[in-house]
């Protein structure tokens, strides 16, 4: 590029010199020393101009690069917030009819921890208390407190009954018919398991040999913990059960 510029300058100079004529059209002699000095001066001036232009460009690029980095730093520190803030709204759902209670069918399989056996059980909303089929009920005293000894057919009436002992929590009087006397029954505390649910209740001990179910759960057990669907049975599945044949 520099050589081209110099060549152009030389041609221009020569042309200017060639154009210089006397009045009589006689060519003037060219001063070689002056021409060479002029060309050298012009070359030096062009080199200086080019160097200054490069220096200015370099300075401009450096300044621009610094400004770009500063802008990038500012952008990285800016947190962009959405124009609209989305707030989750809770959907109002209808309250569960069970209200935290578990569901029972009209018949369920119930495991009694104190007896270590499962029983085919009647869930009876018409009965107030719960009762367990027991035979040979004998009251006795232990350490100044009332206890009871009783037999239960844990494997059905065809197998021998097993004998259990438990502290008496209290006695209840239940009147079956208007012309009958009150039936005084001992009550024991028991821990039950129905499917995955566990609960506690009081069971009164009575001979239920004339009834189909050896275990009955009444309203006191279901209160605040369970809801009964009389149209279903064994909602929580079946296990090995003890049964009592009707008589």
Highlighted features:
single chain, 247 residues, alpha+beta, 6-stranded mixed beta barrel, 3-stranded antiparallel beta sheet
Write the layout of secondary structure elements.
Blueprint lengths: L1 H18 L12 H46 L24 E4 L1 E6 L4 E7 L6 E4 L1 E8 L2 E8 L9 E6 L2 E5 L8 E12 L2 E10 L8 E3 L1 H4 L3 E4 L18
Helix pairs in contact: 1-2
List SSEs in N-to-C order: HHEEEEEEEEEEEHE
**Main sheet attributes: strand count, strand direction, barrel closure:** 6 strands, mixed, barrel
Low-confidence stretches: 17-23
Overall shape: it is rod-shaped
Number of helices: 3
Query: How large a portion of the residues is in β-strands, by DSSP E?
Result: 25-35%
**How many strands in all?**
12
Q: How widely separated are the two ends?
A: 126 Å
Name the helicity range: 25-40%
Rg (CA only): 56 Å
Average pLDDT reading? 80
- Name the strands of the widest sheet in spatial order: 2-3-11-4-10-9
- SS content category: alpha+beta
Structural write-up:
The protein is rod-shaped. It has helices at 2-19, 32-77, 219-222; strands at residues 102-105, 107-112, 117-123, 130-133, 135-142, 145-152, 162-167, 170-174, 183-194, 197-206, 215-217, 226-229. The protein is 28% helix and 31% strand. The protein is α+β, with helices and mostly antiparallel strands and 247 residues long. The strands form 3 sheets. Strands 2-3-11-4-10-9 form a 6-stranded mixed barrel. It has a 3-stranded antiparallel sheet with strand order 5-6-7, with no helix packed on it. It has a two-stranded parallel sheet with strand order 1-12. Strand 5 and strand 6 (145-152) form a beta hairpin. Helix 1 (2-19) packs antiparallel against helix 2 (32-77). The longest helix is centred in the N-terminal third of the chain and has 46 residues, at 32-77.
